[in-house]
Inverse folding.
């Protein structure tokens, strides 16, 4: 009753000033909790993560693995995914109501499914696999056991990742909208308010942080009236949500901005597709976060943000305060159950904007193709690369190591995010024959972060694509990766062992292929979390003497092969 009354009064208050989002109907009570323990969330839909939104619920499993996981509704198992990062081991179930549920970070599947999967892996000679299953192969009923929970893939602790998608478009919906049982009478917390000069690029300023305080009715700025030197401004907030009985600070569902009681813009975490999840970088103040600051969710839409989560009512979230009058600002922050917090502040334009220095570099614009060409480095941004206009600088520096066969080219700044990759072309400073070109990679680095891409070659230029800015160089890599056995040595008696483990080391941390053969036949090694390669002894390795051949290839095409003998 308390929740219903709260939702009524909140809706009445918001409706009285106009409403940004109309409610949408989803099937309720159709899906069950996939666990046998009450739902408690370690993460919710739309929560902010590096370079992506969180796309479902993270269901706590009492810090344990191997809890039984059940089908959320009738349907059939349509896909299985096995990968070292991401979901780890995952099941996809299609349901007759047009939705698909996904269950990730699992340890093991139900026995019949495990056996079928193993057969497929040996047929295709790959551990990493994502097969489509025929509709009649593994039908399930609501509540059927399908797997055991785990901690595989990109998981940082035991839990089950649970998603609900529309089958037709594969776009994720917020599970909170489907009536899953979760006690929640807590309002979102608003912890920060930031103000921006919308005459400037979002990447060429730092936000003005406005101190706020909690009041009996919500939140307000400590300064009664905020005076601003720009006639055009926007806001961002830091906010979090939780649910009854939980201390986890999860993401919010919705935020709406009002100027003098008129709705301006809002965003809502109701549906997001994986094709657009990286667009989180257009929703947050990416520069502030990249420089070690807090998450700030923008209440304005950048011009290059396509398929956005925003709904515009009057403009893109930039508020014109050039009239010099006091503007009453209200920000409503909601969770998926209607619990709402309100932040109030007042702003006023005062004075003439100060003259602004023009940043170095060429100005690039979103939704435009453009580039810079120099003697031995060229780079090009595509239509969907940028979210906002920004000056992008370029600097050339000398290489500092003998394996670097080009100059070092600094392009832009790591705090300028890209949606689509940019194309980087570099001409080496030394002559490289075909063999050396095949072992040359392009490396990007920014601070301690590094990544490597295999090059394509065109008329003496090395070409690669990257989704981050930074410094770029060509590296001649002729060092093969290392194959290191763990707790295992040549000629060992493995009759009492349960598994064989290897790790792979590479000078650029960029190996791509691992293959194992036992007595000339492919052998399945798992590679959870991209670290160790593990074979669990099974019927594929009987008693007697055996030869195990391990082959590894790195990104530059260098290969290493080792043979080991052992007995069982």
């Amino acid at each position: 009753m308390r929740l219903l009354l709260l939702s009524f009064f909140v809706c009445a208050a918001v409706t009285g000033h106009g409403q940004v989002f109309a409610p949408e109907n989803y099937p309720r009570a159709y899906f069950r909790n996939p666990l046998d323990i009450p739902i408690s969330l370690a993460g919710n839909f739309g929560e902010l993560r590096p370079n992506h939104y969180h796309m479902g619920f993270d269901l706590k499993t009492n810090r344990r693995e191997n809890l039984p996981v059940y089908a959320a509704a009738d349907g059939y198992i349509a896909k299985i995914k096995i990968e070292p990062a991401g979901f780890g081991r995952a099941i996809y179930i299609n349901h007759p109501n047009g939705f698909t549920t996904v269950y990730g970070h699992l340890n093991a599947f139900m026995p019949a499914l495990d056996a079928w999967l193993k057969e497929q892996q040996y047929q295709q000679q790959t551990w990493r696999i994502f097969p489509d299953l025929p509709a009649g192969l593994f039908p399930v009923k609501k509540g059927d056991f399908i797997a055991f929970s785990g901690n595989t893939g990109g998981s940082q602790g035991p839990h089950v990742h649970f998603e609900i998608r529309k089958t037709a478009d594969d776009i994720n919906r917020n599970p909170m909208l489907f009536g899953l049982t979760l006690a929640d009478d807590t309002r979102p917390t608003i912890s920060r308010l930031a103000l921006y000069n919308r005459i400037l690029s979002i990447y060429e300023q730092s936000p003005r942080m406005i101190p706020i305080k909690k009041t009996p009715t919500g939140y307000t700025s400590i300064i009664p009236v905020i005076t601003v030197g720009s006639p055009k401004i926007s806001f961002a907030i830091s906010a979090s949500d939780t649910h009854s009985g939980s201390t986890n600070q999860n993401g919010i569902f919705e935020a709406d901005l009002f100027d003098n009681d008129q709705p301006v813009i809002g965003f809502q975490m109701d549906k997001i597709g994986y094709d657009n999840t990286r667009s989180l970088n257009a929703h947050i103040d990416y520069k502030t976060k990249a420089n070690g600051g807090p998450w700030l969710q923008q209440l304005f839409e950048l011009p290059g943000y396509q398929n956005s989560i925003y709904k515009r009512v009057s403009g893109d979230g930039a508020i014109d305060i050039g009239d010099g009058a006091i503007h009453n600002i209200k920000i409503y922050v909601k969770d998926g159950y209607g619990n709402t917090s309100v932040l109030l502040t007042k702003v006023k334009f005062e004075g003439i904007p100060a003259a602004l220095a023009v940043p170095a570099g060429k100005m690039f614009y979103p939704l435009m193709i453009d580039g810079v060409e120099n003697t031995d480095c060229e780079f090009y941004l595509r239509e969907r690369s940028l979210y906002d206009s920004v000056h992008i600088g370029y600097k050339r520096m000398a290489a500092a190591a003998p394996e670097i066969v080009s100059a070092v080219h600094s392009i832009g700044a790591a705090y300028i995010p890209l949606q689509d990759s940019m194309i980087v072309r570099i001409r080496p400073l030394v002559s490289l024959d075909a063999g050396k070109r095949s072992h040359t990679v392009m490396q990007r680095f920014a601070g301690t972060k590094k990544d490597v891409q295999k090059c394509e070659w065109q008329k003496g230029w090395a070409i690669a694509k990257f989704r981050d800015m930074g410094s770029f160089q060509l590296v001649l890599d002729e060092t093969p990766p290392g194959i290191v056995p763990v707790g295992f040595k040549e000629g060992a008696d493995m009759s009492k062992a349960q598994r064989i483990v290897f790790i792979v080391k590479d000078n650029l941390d960029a190996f791509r292929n691992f293959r194992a053969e036992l007595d000339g036949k492919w052998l399945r090694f798992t590679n959870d979390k991209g670290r160790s390669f593990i074979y669990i002894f099974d019927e594929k390795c009987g008693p007697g003497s055996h030869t195990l051949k391990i082959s590894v290839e790195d990104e530059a095409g260098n290969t290493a092969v080792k043979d080991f003998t052992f007995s069982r």
User: Anything to note?
Assistant: The two ends are 66 Å apart (CA to CA).
